[in-house]
Amino acid sequence: MFESLDPMNCKVALLAGGKSGEREISLSSGKGAQSALEEAGFAVTVLDPANKADLERLIAEDFDVAFLCLHGKGGEDGSIQGFLETIGLPYTGSGVWASALAIDKEKAKKFYREAGIPTPESLSITRGEEYSLDEIARKMGGSCVVKPNKEGSSLGVFIVKSGDDLGESIDQAFKVGERLLIERYVEGMELTVAVVGDKEPEALPIIEIVPQSDSYDFESKYAPGGSQHICPARLDEEIARRVGDLAVRAHQALGCSGVSRSDFLLDAHGEPWILETNTIPGMTKTSLLPDAARAAGISFPELCTRLVGYALEGGK
Hints:
13 strands; Rossmann fold; alpha+beta; four-stranded antiparallel beta sheet; 3 domains; Dna Ligase, domain 1; D-amino Acid Aminotransferase, Chain A, domain 1
């Protein structure tokens, strides 16, 4: 695969930072990917789209490909992808449409359902519009999850197990995003599945996440020791095969390219429920995608090389 790709003759513009609430995580991802790419032999220039001068360099300088480590708004929502397509620079990950769709949890759920992928029941509310706490509690049952519709890294996510906490959780989540997704709470094993490839995408080994806190929150994701990653997950072979298949179907249903990572909850009955799909998975030392790749026998430099290869092959 990618026999014609010569890292020594491939100039990579690695984009990290940006202006989203996930800026610091993006910078950490950039450092991790930069090290792996350079180990693979690529010439890497790190650029921050938050700086106008760096955007100008993307236009003026002769790069072969952009490697995206931008998380959240401006990075995963199709914005930077549209800019790169306008200037004709190939880039890693999904295209404009798939990126915009995947980051919108509400819209992504519609595509999951059409593809027959189980996802928890939900409703959405918008800041400034009227809503009824009683009606939300009635529809969502005894417990629910409140989250901004277009944020990642568990920013502004609240698990509500008492109706008394619902209003406060909504108020806090509205500080992060203007539209919220309120989802029926599913208790179970937390799983994540990375998918790589374009024409024939395949699932990497499933990771079971065991957070040290009550849920896989921001600290659990990024603080050293915040969670334990078990890969491959402790699953029955048939269930593991089904979860992997659902992740590939989610990748295809949303039109993803190159790489994606879908998060699931496996309930007490062995039923997997998809929560969301990330089009630019993290590349930090504690990130899940590199963990899954290593379990599949793919080194971090090899993984990054594959992502560059998928980008240069096109197909978005």
